[in-house]
Specification:
alpha/beta, globular
Length: 205
């Protein structure tokens, strides 16, 4: 069975709208009421410009207050190759978690700057030939640079502006989509923010 996947070019107009729509579509397709918690696993390290996409997304989402939504991975506490297995082990703390895995990756030159969201797990470290465990019910990847030659050096010499643009779209789209999906919980806990407040929060990143 082929896995459902959508992608968007972050440099094009309305990339946030397209990504939000794609993420929401795949989330609804994969998620059901049997899941007890939603865990965002933001993978990467702040020690490499190209590989800091995950920690940046986690940093931008760490203040998201939704019931049973948890963020692992940020600039302060990154989830990377050395501790990934430990964090995967922490998923056992939840009865039945739905995991959204987020990471940077390398790709073809004409795909740099694209964000992909797909059903199925993420395979972290594949672009730099690291054997790490797969994780995630759905995965979100941002292509930050070109693969095929000296991958570690390429990641370290990736433009921060591109990574920031990818992180802004991913974090904003996930924040808005999850808020919409769990809106009933937000209403129960208190008055939800107006759409203008949500838009401002997304813009501020």
């Amino acid at each position: 069975m082929s896995l459902y996947e959508k992608s968007v070019d972050v440099s094009k107009p309305f990339s946030f709208i397209y990504f939000s729509s794609y993420f929401e579509e795949i989330f609804k397709k994969s998620y059901n009421d049997g899941y007890t918690d939603t865990v965002l696993l933001c993978i990467g390290t702040d020690r490499s410009t190209g590989d800091c996409l995950g920690p940046l997304v986690g940093h931008k989402l760490k203040d998201m207050k939704l019931k049973n939504v948890h963020i692992y991975g940020s600039l302060d506490e990154p989830v990377h190759a050395k501790n990934l297995k430990d964090y995967i082990g922490k998923l056992n703390l939840f009865p039945n978690p739905f995991v959204i895995a987020i990471d940077a990756c390398l790709g073809k030159i004409d795909r740099v700057g694209f964000i992909s969201v797909r059903e199925g797990p993420l395979f972290p470290g594949a672009g730099v030939n690291k054997a790490l465990p797969s994780v995630g019910n759905i995965s979100v990847t941002g292509i930050v640079n070109v693969c095929g030659f000296m991958e570690v050096m390429v990641l370290q010499n990736t433009r921060l502006s591109l990574v920031m643009n990818l992180a802004n779209v991913i974090s904003g789209g996930i924040r808005y989509s999850l808020w919409k999906h769990f809106n009933s919980e937000v209403r129960r806990l208190g008055k939800p923010p107006k759409d203008t407040e949500i838009s401002q929060k997304i813009t501020e990143g």
